[in-house]
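Subject: Sanity check before I submit

Could someone independently write out the structure tokens for this chain? I want to compare against mine line by line before I put it in a report. The sequence has 201 residues.
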Amino acid sequence: MDGNNINEVLNLVNKVLGDQDYTNVEKAILTLLYLYNDQINVYKLHKMVFLASLNIKELRDEMEPEPRMYKDIFYDSTITEALESLKLEGLIEGDTLLQLSSKGKEVASRFLLSDQEKEIYKQIVDLFKDTTDDEILAIFYFTLDGMIKIISPLYRIIKNRKELAISLYTKGKVSFNTALEISGMDNRNFASLLKKKIIYL
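---
Independent answer below. Compare away.
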């Protein structure tokens, strides 16, 4: 084995050992901040981690069985604790608006993610880019029933669910079936409404 191969093996070992220093929730937070590549509101980050957990079992297993949403704030104590730990370690900066420190970027860049995990995180980042808070809330309110406990839902989200569904669909953020679920309408009426709205966009 030549020197280059030895260095490659050592780098791989360091990456694997580095991964083991963090919980799945901490890795998800760091990965999402790294891929988002900008400041993220702490409440938005909570929602992003939860959405990732729906498709990553090891991540879901570390989180609360039934997290809560009060109006527009999604809360999971495990995510909060992980954020505080990462801040103390100097990997994350900020209070309400969070971003990776240079040390945090270095750590996140070394994580070994499967192709499936990379795709899940990429889809979540794409979903949250150029999407309003109300559009994200509509997804949580109307597609995650039974997975989260919603306390005091915001009336404007319920009132505007059709418009939010159309907006999400026309932006390419959700599938037709997900938009249909958010709208609360039947297939035919929603398709008709969607056709009218798209004509006037």
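---
OP: Matches mine. For the report I'm noting this point. The chain has a mean pLDDT of 90.
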